[in-house]
Write a structure and sequence with these properties.
This protein is an alpha/beta fold. The chain has two domains: 9-160, SPOUT methyltransferase, trefoil knot domain (Alpha/beta knot); 172-242, Trp Operon Repressor, Chain A. It contains eight helices and eight strands. α3 (103-110) crosses α5 and α7 (208-226) crosses α8 (228-236). The termini are far apart. The structure holds ligand 9D3. The site of ligand 9D3 has 15 residues, from β5.
Length: 243
């Protein structure tokens, strides 16, 4: 696809399982935005770049050990046929060894014109391919997936919702509050009461100032209790410290 000025933000996924896409990205918010041309999704089947008639993409690890390793020559051929190499392009390898994904990095990646996402399968990818093509390694958390594809879906979803025109009401402020390290306050709607449980009185009061204060306090309380890591980081960024 030519990279002209009319090309929307594009995610290009290099994978052995192109049938996994668009998957959840074809539904709901991301799916509607995809249909309306606010972003584009391309898949490249890494197996198409295998050199032999059996279309081999992996081999046993040097040094022994379990599983198989993706060959550097096949992966590099797929990358070289795909990347344009411009400043506005990010070349990423989804990997359990990668830097944990953050909202700050999502924001930066959504501001590029194109992401090229390399999904691994097997035990991993030959280290020389990662180094030679300067792949940035990103993880989506400390748990084990069966491959990079679900991680690519997570990364793309997080970027797409930040693209201009995708979310109905811009919630940039809410995202900034998450980047500043606060969890959300609790939400309530009708009916009230429900199963004998009352909605907090302040939310029915119409006092917008008191509601804002109450929500702020509940957000801070939730962050302190559930995510002491976020809470400490947030306190560190502020002048006051009330524990
Ligand atoms: C015991 C060695 N395993 C590392 C934890 C090997 C291994 C397991 C699973 C290697 C790759 C995978 C597949 N996972 C990903 O490709 C992956 C991933 C993940 O598993 N968790 C969080 N983020 C990511 S991004 C890609």
């Amino acid at each position: 696809m030519p990279d002209g000025p009319g090309t929307p933000w594009t995610a290009t996924v290099l994978t052995l399982f192109p049938e996994m896409f668009p998957g959840p990205l074809g539904a709901s918010l991301a799916g509607k935005a995809l249909e309306s041309g606010l972003w584009a999704l391309e898949c490249v089947d890494i197996r198409d770049f295998a050199g032999d008639k059996h279309r081999t993409v992996d081999d046993a690890p040097f040094g022994g050990g379990p599983g198989m390793v993706m060959r550097p020559d096949v992966l590099a051929a797929a990358i070289d046929a795909t990347v344009a190499g411009g400043e506005d392009e990010a070349l990423i390898h989804l990997s359990p060894r990668g830097a944990p994904l953050t909202q700050a990095r999502v924001r930066e990646l959504s501001a590029r014109r194109r992401l090229v996402l390399v999904c691994g399968r097997f035990e991993g990818v030959d280290e020389r391919a990662i180094q030679a093509r300067e792949l940035e390694e990103i993880s989506v958390g400390d748990y084990v997936l069966s491959g990079g594809e679900p991680a690519a879906v997570v990364l793309i979803d997080a970027c797409v919702r930040l693209l201009p025109g995708v979310v109905g009401a811009p919630d940039g402020l809410a995202d900034e509050s998450f980047e500043a390290g606060l969890l959300e306050y609790p939400h309530y709607t009708r009916p009230n009461p429900w199963e004998g449980r009352e909605v907090p009185e302040v939310l029915l009061s119409g006092h917008h100032e008191r509601i804002r204060t109450w929500r702020r306090e509940r957000a801070e309380e939730a962050t302190r209790r559930r995510r002491p890591d976020l809470w400490r980081r947030r306190r560190g960024a502020e002048a006051v410290d009330d524990g």
